[in-house]
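Example (one chain per record):
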Amino acid sequence: MTHIGKTALAIMLAIMAVLPAKSQIAYRIEGNGLKEPAVIFGTHHLAPLSVIDSVAGARKAFDEASRIVGEIDMTQGPMQIQMAMQQHIAAPADSTLHDLLPAEKWNALNESFKSLAPMPGMDLELLNGMKPMAVTTIVALGIVSKEMPDYNPAEQLDSYFQTEGAKAGKKIIGLETVDEQATLLYDFTPVAEQAEALVKVLENPSEEIKSAREMNEAYAAQELERLAALSEAQSANAAFMKALVNDRNAAWAEKLPAIMAEGPVFVAVGALHLPGDNGLLKMLENKGYKVTPLK
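Predicted structure:
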């Protein structure tokens, strides 16, 4: 399976690397002049909210933080986010699904899509004007909703932390804009390659299902090492993964010191941004911070 099919789940599910420490999804950041420690919590899109209370000290750290940091500010309103995403999701006039997908396979691909779609009545004709990557993401959502019936998209860790934080009067900070994230997800890879990946996903959805199960199990066990290994094994495009993970980590590691210096902060980003030599934890250690598992 190509990298787009796998990274669609990684986008909906999380991101990559290798952790040399023991299993843990939340870490305390202190030292290097910080007056109060910060906490970084690795999230996962399929995890139930109960995972918060399975990590000792996580709820207390969240309650005590004055600011909540996420990948993007998800409290700015769904309409604003949708408008920012729309320009990146829309396909060029000469690159609709009908232009990109093999005509002789259209009917078979459409039947496969309909069987996987998260809502009845959805088909490729309705999505003809969308980039293939956006359609692949919809397929991933459909797989999740069918294979993991307990999954509730309304109870998602990243949005929960930000929504509850805003209700409590905490400042919400995004490490990047919606436009920056959408540019990477939908514009980085040529649409022809996106289409090729979509075809492979629709022709062999069992691989996507297997991937979703394995990554969910690894996160539930708080085994970032295994989660990272799965992501690395499933990724075929080094340039895309570097941009998706390493480059963003480097940018965030430059922003976080100033944010952490202003007072207690709770950072919630995809769990696979944490581990490895190019992960946030190691990058912050290299800047002189002490990084320890939250207890």
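Caption: The two ends are 39 Å apart (CA to CA).
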